[in-house]
Write a structure and sequence with these properties.
With 244 residues, the chain is of the alpha+beta class. It has a domain of 139 residues: Ubiquitin-like (UB roll). 36% of the residues lie in helices and 16% in strands. It contains 9 helices and 9 strands. It is globular, with a radius of gyration of 24 Å.
């Protein structure tokens, strides 16, 4: 097979493609950006000032929230989600499997015949930790695991489900996910960096570290895709990495 000719033939087909019209949800990106996230602005709009300030303090300082505050937040989240047609919620976490996991529940409370969502369901769930790698840190009778809501990550809607970002820990307190160690590392960086910054400016009270992945996306025409056996067989592009 003449691969060069195959590639040239594929390039000739590109101008023949019908242009795909992309219609944005609104004229301004700010009109729809984050509309499926229950972030700071959504909290400000749905919570009382007192409850909002408590949640904001917990997010900024990494502190716990009391059950009264959790119940008020859960009620606001439920109303916000149900207005979007959401009927179920899940605690979403990253166990040591290289993937993500979810524990789904319904807003509908059969015992009361109404949609119900309490603060206790928001802040904690109990998945079966025996289903995930543990490194032998617990006995069989200690196989319970707990997911706990992470207020620093906004609750969001994915398709028809309300997703609550959580950390995942074992019955005995060990981290069983990738997020709990990350949050601990961010806290350690904050404390250490704040001490250094105070040497130059005593008004510095905290440092917010950021961590992100550099990503590059390539749009490949279908004809060029068919000319690449590696893409066809692997069903994906070749992944690589480099260091700065």
């Amino acid at each position: 097979m003449n691969m060069a000719k195959l590639r040239f033939d594929a390039l000739k087909k590109i101008p023949e493609r019908k242009k795909v019209q992309v219609v944005p949800p609104g004229e301004k990106v700010s009109d729809f950006y984050g509309e499926n996230s229950f972030g700071i602005e959504a909290m400000r709009a749905t919570l009382s000032p007192d409850i909002f300030n408590k949640i904001l303090y917990a997010i900024k300082k990494g502190k716990k929230i009391d059950m009264e505050t959790a119940d008020a937040l859960a009620a606001a989240v439920k109303s916000w989600a149900m207005n979007k047609g959401i009927t179920h919620y899940t605690h979403w976490f990253q166990p040591l499997t290289g993937s993500t996991a979810e524990k789904h529940d319904s807003f509908f409370d059969a015992s009361k015949g109404i949609e119900n969502f309490k603060g206790s369901a928001l802040v904690q769930q109990e998945p079966d930790a025996s289903s995930f790698p543990s490194g032998g840190i617990r006995s069989t009778f200690e196989a319970r695991g707990y997911t706990a809501w992470d207020p620093s990550s906004p609750i969001f809607v994915m398709e028809k489900t309300l997703c609550i970002p959580t950390i995942f820990v074992s019955y005995t307190g060990e981290a069983l996910d990738y997020k709990a160690p990350l949050l601990k590392a961010l806290t350690a960086v904050d404390k250490a960096a704040t001490k250094v910054c105070k040497l130059f400016d005593r008004n510095i009270t905290s440092v917010q570290p950021y961590l992100g992945c550099e990503q590059e996306y390539f749009v490949v025409d279908e004809a060029l895709y068919q000319a690449r056996p590696d893409l066809v067989m692997a069903k994906r592009t070749v992944f690589g990495h480099y260091l700065h």
